[in-house]
Amino acid sequence: QRYVFRPPGATFSNRRLQSTHPGHSTVRYGVPELPLTYYSRRRRNEAIGRWLWLRRQRRDRSPIAITGPSGVGKSVIVAAICRSNVIGAMFPRGIIWLDCSDLRNLRFGMETVLADLTKETQTILDISDGVSELQNHIHFRDTLLVFDNLDDEKLATLLEPLTRISTVLLTTAKTQVLYTFHCRGSKLRPFSLNDGVQLLKLVSRVQHNDVDYQQLRSVVRQSGQMPSLIVASGSLIRSQPSTWRQYLGEGAEQTGRSQTTFSDRLFDATVAGLNAVESECLRRLVVFEPSDRMTVAVLETLWFDVAQRIDGQSLIQTFLDRNLLRKVVSTGEFKI
């Protein structure tokens, strides 16, 4: 029982915390949707929820930090917490999600929130100005602020004043950021082997007799039990049921056990499964840097003469499903 957080009127479901009391209408600004293949980490969800509840009861302003390497699932677990009705009931003035992976995302998030709060169009040129505006419009204790992917120490220093007027939940891959906020971090670790297999089965949609259980364990073990790589592996198994074993099977595992080697084999297998049109469209993406943003219009223009017979949206979705493109949730753009 000490692991379970159940305020009055709260129950736990398999996918997320839910409240038995109807009528909670907390506004969530920028909180991403959960993946269709979301797999709950029950104890961790409950523990973070309990920490938030205790912070409010004690009027404690120190942030809660979730740390861990990229791809371990920090953003997903925090999004699940923010979308629970119990946590929403704790913060009736709203839950504000700010993507801090780069300045453009952060400015866009601030502008969107302030435009809704003030009912006026906002333009944020400097992060300090955005922080000042948020300080004027956020109600202490009744608002939850989420700083997602806050890995820049200088940016953390600019955002630190917001911890004085709101409860803050942040995710970071760099523990140095915690010194700015004078708080401890809770490290999120990779999945257990059994949970990793369950996630792989969920994503790949394999039936009980389609794939040997030991083969799935081998794939999860090779991935380092990292959720992002497990999801990518499941997408590969689903799209290439007859050929994935030559890249990720038991024999392939013996060629190299490092996570980097597995990532390379996973990418090679994904590319090998593309048809001629998809391969040409992927080749054209090499003109972009990892930091570049692409809109749907830019991608459709880039692929126009190759993919005239293919719907651009469906092609983008194919690349998203196979982890060849990544969607920037805050702006709706794409990155390689």
Keywords:
336 residues, alpha/beta, 6-stranded parallel beta sheet, two-stranded antiparallel ribbon, 16 helices, disordered N terminus
Structure description:
The protein is α/β, with parallel strands linked by helices and 336 residues long. The chain has 16 helices and ten strands. The chain has helices at residues 42-58, 74-82, 85-90, 103-118, 127-137, 153-159, 176-181, 193-204, 213-222, 227-239, 245-248, 250-253, 259-272, 276-283, 296-302, 312-321; strands at residues 10-12, 17-19, 28-29, 64-67, 94-99, 143-148, 167-172, 185-187, 326-328, 333-335. Strands 3-5-6-7-4-8 form a six-stranded parallel β-sheet. It starts with 9 loop residues before the first strand and ends with a strand. The model is unreliable at 1-23 (pLDDT under 50).
Write the layout of secondary structure elements.
Layout: E1 10-12, E2 17-19, E3 28-29, H1 42-58, E4 64-67, H2 74-82, H3 85-90, E5 94-99, H4 103-118, H5 127-137, E6 143-148, H6 153-159, E7 167-172, H7 176-181, E8 185-187, H8 193-204, H9 213-222, H10 227-239, H11 245-248, H12 250-253, H13 259-272, H14 276-283, H15 296-302, H16 312-321, E9 326-328, E10 333-335
Helix pairs in contact: 1-2, 4-5, 8-9, 8-10, 10-13
Q: Major β-sheet, in short?
A: 6 strands, parallel
Poorly predicted tracts of residues:
1-23
Total strands: the figure is 10
Q: What is the gyration radius calculated from CA atoms?
A: 21 Å
Q: Biggest sheet: strands side by side, in what order?
A: 3-5-6-7-4-8
What general outline do the C-alpha atoms trace? globular
Helix amount, in percent? Answer: 40-55%
Please, what is the average pLDDT? 82
